Amino acid sequence: MAAAVPPPPAAEEGGAILNEFTPPILLADKILKLAQEAVSSRQECVDIAQQVDQIYRKLQATVRLISTTTQPLYERPIRRIVADVTKNLERALNFVSKCRHSGFLRQVFSMTTIADFRKVSGLLESSIGDMKWLISIFDPDGSVGLPPIASNDPTLAYIWPNIATIQMGSIKNLEAANQLTLLTRGNDRNQKIVVEEGGVPPLLKLLKDYASPDAQISAANVLINVASVPDRVKSILDVLGVPIIVQALNHSSMRVQIVVANLVSQMAELSSLAQEEFARENVTKPLVTCLSIDMVLDDPKVHLGKSSFHSVVEIKKQLVGRASNSSLNLNSSSDSCSLYSDGSSRGGHQRKEKEVDMVLDDPKVRLGKSVVEIKKEFDGRASNSSLNLNSSSGSCSSYSDGSSRGGHQRKEKEVESSEVKLQLKVNCAEALWRLSKGSVSNSRKITETKGLLCMAKIIESEEGDLQYNCLMTVMEVTAVAESKPDFRHVAFKITSLAPKAILYQLSRLIQEERDPRLQVPAIKSIGSLARIFPAKESRIINLLVMQMKSINMDVALEAVIALGKFACLENYNCVAHSKSIIEFDGVPPLMKLLGQNEAAQVPGLKLLCYLALSAGNSKALEEAHALNEMKRMARLVFAHTDLHELYSKAIHHLTLYQAGAHHIHRHHFSP
């Protein structure tokens, strides 16, 4: 005997909604009986009875359709219409009840007029139209018209049928979603109506329809339009929309991924709660995967040259790439290639990176061993390793996500045009930017993947929006690292590969770029990482000092702020950094900015105070008349209470150490 098939979810929903039909059906039955007993206004009662009979039949037909349908129900209009029909039937019952009284006095006190009849008749006619519409939404081939109940709000009359079409799984899903896209584009009221009328769950359901990419795109576009304010973003979170969005980003075609990435970006920008929800679903992994399409992170080109900051990075990259092409037998088990680079349960690639680290961290290397010798030493270690790994399960993917993506997906990626791939990367980079802003969890996940390395390569080789979005992502991640020491110590080790690559690209942008749009975030990022630089690292200091002389005031201001983070007392190496700033002739441009740029006065004064405290006996400060300039800015300090103590200490320090001053000031600033 065959096992009983459980009822579909729609049946459970139908069982709950069917209870709404009981009151109007009983009312209609009672009206029909009372109409036969009418004494006065018999013709009017007959007409009302005919209208009620139509409503009665349509109520029964709707109940039968709901009981037999296998599709999910869009309950919002059903409940509204049935409630309105019930109200109109109650008025009809009241009219018919007055017409059944016999006797002169009873007829006088229960008198009905033609106006009463016409009003009730009009209400019943509207209910008939509403019931017709309600029945029509169950017919996929039927024409869904405009229900009279929505006549007072034409917009609602358009939104209801389209949401119903999507919810009921009609073949017209795409058309309905396109209509909603047009209705909600730039229209706040329509966006609000879609949310209030329960349109978000059907749209999320359509987003999971992987067999119809066009419908997915339309659904995502409607959600983008709707998620224009934090409250409506929360409505998507409340119906558990984030897991569905992340799944669509993981499993959909590239054209769909472009729009979904845009949705992720918008939601993350508007809601910190959405940021954390996306972090829980690990949305950064598919975003980084899409960002690294056609990118082989493990085999970059190597520039041979002197042993500099950049050459060490490139040497390390080449060594990892060479190891990947060596004759070692690698086991391509599920963990042999990984998107992550934090060192936890990683496969052969991670082991190769560790061996590279061993070579690069060797004292002999630090003492100046040549590039060729480093490579030979690494090759020797690789050839002597005893890794015995089986490649029977397939070779590692060169993509940075580490997943063993099948041939079908790779082919699909390859057939897409370069324009589509570029747009996908741009949108994914922007989504990572919005997700990482102020979010420790998302920033940590980006650094745990090869996201930083991927973005370093893009910053180096790309331009336009893609380069800018990656740079802004780096800026936000470093801003989080600045405020979270634990995260900074793990994610931005100065000896690690990805941070080295990022730092090199940031310094290159600062030095070579002439576009403030790129220079400003690069300088901000360097400033956020000021505490990771050792005392002997003076090249970055020199670059920032040079930018204080920039003709662009935004660039010069950011350079002052960044240098302030190097020289601040909270920085362990503040004394060494302050001396480097002075050695690179940073005092004259600083004094010039203090006199010319009002916006630079507060950060500039802070930097000058830090220099005075760490290198108060400097001749450069004396020659620049730093003490007199600081005293001239006393009024500015009154307006910024956070400067009082710092300013007072700096004045006192300079007064003691500036032997070349005209006279010794024995008092110091006391606000």
Oligomer: single chain
Q: Kindly state the number of beta strands.
A: 0
CATH class label of the domain at 1-152: Mainly Alpha
Instruction: Compute the number of helices.
Output: 37
Radius of gyration: 36 Å
The proportion of residues forming helix, as a percent range, comes to 55-70%
Head-to-tail CA distance between termini: 93 Å
CATH architecture of the domain at 1-152: Up-down Bundle
Q: What general form does the structure show?
A: elongated
Pfam family, one: DUF7792
Region (Disordered): 326-360, 382-416
Biased composition (Low complexity): 326-344, 383-403
Keywords: Repeat
Give a quick rundown of the structure.
Among the domains are: 152 residues, I/LWEQ domain, CATH 1.20.1410; 116 residues, Leucine-rich Repeat Variant; 123 residues.
List the helices and strands and how they pair.
Layout: H1 9-18, H2 22-36, H3 42-68, H4 75-99, H5 104-109, H6 114-136, H7 154-167, H8 173-184, H9 188-196, H10 200-207, H11 213-226, H12 230-238, H13 241-251, H14 254-270, H15 272-280, H16 284-291, H17 309-324, H18 348-360, H19 363-366, H20 371-383, H21 407-415, H22 418-436, H23 440-448, H24 451-461, H25 465-483, H26 485-491, H27 497-512, H28 516-528, H29 539-547, H30 553-567, H31 574-583, H32 587-596, H33 601-614, H34 619-623, H35 626-632, H36 634-638, H37 644-657
